[in-house]
Specification:
single chain; alpha+beta; 2 domains; five-stranded mixed beta sheet; 6 helices; 10 strands; about 30% helix
Length: about 220
């Protein structure tokens, strides 16, 4: 009778733990031995992945491998799901994961996409152009120029792909006399004539042009 009660209690505890994400999961998968040898946080992380994402041990292995490639370097402490997005917390970091049929669809950190391909969020596309009139010496409106204002640090962190997207999506065919990216330290990038394939970097006037361009493009200051 005592043995029967002990077995019942053990079964109850196992089910209770599994229900709250703390139960042990089946680590006997084709990749478990190799992953256990490589990562000392594998087993603990698998418990949470398997329980909270409600996927098979084999699927959890693949999720774990992808998370490691995206920066997971210690035990997962918690996973929270909100509208189909799983926020995976570990140490002081977190990753946002979406699944499709038990497989990882995307992994993001902040606004950057880490998986399936790295794609840095383009901060240049977050700002609406500020449009101003270009005036002649007599005060007549002879055109328009446009610019965005960002921090210098933001400009330093943009990628070649970010720059290209801005040039081709915002500057190209815009029709402005010039388009500029103005930084807080007074420097920036100017596309004279809204030519997306030509740009000058340097110290800019408030209107977004360089000293060299004031004679050939405008005299705004």
């Amino acid at each position: 009778m005592k043995r029967f009660l002990s077995l019942c209690l053990a079964a109850y505890l196992a089910l209770s733990l599994a229900g709250c994400g703390g139960g042990l999961v089946d680590l006997d998968t084709p990749k478990s031995e190799e992953l256990s040898a490589q990562y000392d946080y594998y087993a603990d992380s698998m418990n949470i992945i398997r329980a909270d994402m409600k996927i098979t041990p084999e699927q959890a292995d693949e999720v774990f491998i992808i998370l490691v490639s995206c920066g997971l370097d210690e035990k997962i402490t918690s996973i929270y799901e909100n509208s189909g997005v799983y926020t995976v917390n570990f140490g002081g970091d977190s990753l946002d994961v979406t699944l499709n049929g038990g497989a990882v669809d995307t992994v993001q950190q902040g606004q950057d996409t880490l998986y399936p391909e790295f794609s840095k969020h383009n901060v240049l596309m977050d700002y609406d152009l500020i449009v101003k009139d270009v005036k002649s010496g007599s005060g007549d409106v002879i055109g328009e120029y446009a610019y965005i204002r960002i921090m210098k640090k933001q400009l330093e962190e943009i990628t070649e792909e970010n720059y290209k997207e801005f040039a081709e999506s915002v500057v190209k065919d815009s029709g402005y006399n010039w388009v500029s990216i103005l930084c807080d330290d007074g420097t920036g990038i100017c596309f004279p004539g809204s030519m997306y394939y030509v740009a000058d970097y340097g110290k800019l006037f408030a209107s977004g042009v360089t000293n060299r361009q004031t004679s050939g493009v405008c005299s705004q200051k």
